[in-house]
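Hi there,

I know you've been waiting on this one. I reran it after we fixed the sequence typo, so this is the corrected version. Both the input and the resulting structure follow.
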Amino acid sequence: MREKSFEEIYIKEKGYLGTKPHKITTKIISYKKTGKVLDLGCGEGRDALFLSKKGFKVTAIDISKTGIKNLLKKAKELKVKIIGKVKDITKFNFKIKYDIIISFSVFQFLNKKEVYSIIKKMKKNTKKEGINVISAFNEENPNKNFPFLFKKGELKEFYRDWKILDYKEFITPIEKHGKAGRTHQHGISMVIAQKIK
């Protein structure tokens, strides 16, 4: 279901979600200057491209073949190296530890068991003093028609044993994706956390 919907979106309109990185991504470089990054659910790679241009070694994973294709094409144009893999993040096999693992606007498409499992793997496969960054929909989201929405404080609780560098729960300004998209808002839970032991 999620594979089909995003594949169709990226085929119809390249750059559907825009080309600028998330504001959160621009904050990452104030905490880490170098290292290996894993972007889980990268879409067309706006965050992966930004971090790669800043000198990070980036691996980007997405279920959409077209999303990864567009990412790698753009990386070639910008002359940056990114490892792009077409993969369902729920089946991704972590083989190394990363300095930074990010995931934006993905978890609401998964079920509770998958979300809990992925966060556990993210934490386990982050180096000491490494960072996890997650942004996903919460129960304040006006559209409740998603398999999973974070409860108030739930995302922060996952990282109670890490150092919380930033945590927010908020409603986004009114926005629109793509040329034919409808105006909407999202309820967001966002965490930047650092592994301290």
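Quick highlight: Residues 2-194 form a domain with the Rossmann fold fold (CATH 3.40.50.150).

Best,
R. S.
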